[in-house]
Amino acid sequence: MMPWLIDFQDEKVVIIGGGKVAFRKAEQFLKHQAQVIVIARDFIDDFQLLDCQQIQDQYSCHYLNEAFFVYSATDDKEINQQIINDAKRMHIMCASATASNAQFMSMSEIQTENMTLGISTNGTYPAFSKKLKTDLLKYDEYIGVLAKIRSEVLQKEIVSSKYRQRFFNQLMLFEKEELKLIWDFIKHARGLVLIFHRLLDETAYAFAKSCQGYPIAFSDHQFQLKIETLQMLEIELIIQPMVIAYGKIYDHIQASLSIQCQEPLFVDKYVLEDIYSPLKKRLFLIHPRQTRELYDLLSPYGDVYTFNDTEYFDYDYDIIIPFLLQKGYHYQKDILRIRNMMNGKYHEFRSVLLEDDQVKDKLIQKIKSL
After folding, report:
1. How far apart are the first and last CA of the chain?
2. In this predicted model, what pLDDT tens digit does every residue of 335-363 receive, in sequence order?
3. DSSP labels for 267-279?
4. Considering only CA atoms, which of 308, 321, 328 is closest in space to residue 353?
5. Taking a C-beta distance cutoff of 8 angstroms, is the pair 290, 245 a contact?
6. Which 3 state secondary structure label does DSSP give 86?
7. Burial 207-237 (b: 16+ CB within 10 A, else e)
């Protein structure tokens, strides 16, 4: 069996039968703008609602003359089979409401603005078609966004013809909300991508939304394909690694890209100056693997120690600042341990950087100005 979409507009469709099945089929064909003629000895009252020709008569093959399509929907299997035989002899496409050797079989239909789907279980379990129909409707908006992107890409030629097929295939890796962001990138010929190392939590999504950027985790198993897809767009693409300073993570992110990414978030001393002036008695807690550069950048604004240097801490700090972007593994394992160890011997113990309003606002301002 092979499924086909058939255009019934202005075509003559003959339905034999006046019951509920015949009514549903007449209604369906009328929706597709066919010229519907219904032949039956008796009609249910619902037929009064339909704008189609209704002939009260028993079946005769002359009613099939010049028909484009025939549907047999009587309650008599022998008559249905006769209709099928007559249609075949007259070379007319035919389907039947009952199990038969008709060449065409009805399918449950989904018709929306963005898709037309026919669903059949090949007669094995018709009720399951209804379930599939409901489940598949959720893809309508998704297809709508895909269609808008495809139309714009083709019209404006913003993906090279060399990569276009791969682009359209890989575009389906993205979820609906991600596609909406890509659509905005295309509309404005400019896009911002924020690459987080591991964790895409609520803080990351909220920050990306404030920047009008697309967040993606470097640890995402589809990261390379998604980044490759975005880089196929011939638009201004700005990629901001969400890392604190230069180091291995930054280098790995840059190596995965075909274009130059932005510098780390805190290498600009003017950002730190705006956030951490005037001077206070601060303690910055940094990752043990951070570079000397970060230590030098932070030290003018307070003491700088790693998570492992607790024996050197002065307990008399006004502010303790965990210099981590998000509450990941090191926050849970190290920062909370240090906080408990110090047991309130500080004026203020800050949260991670993306939960600090002053830091967050300054970073948003910095990124939006790129």
Report:
1. 56
2. 999 988 888 778 899 999 999 999 999 99
3. --HHHHHHHH-S-
4. 321
5. yes
6. helix
7. bbeebbbbbbbbebeeeeebbbbbbbbebeb
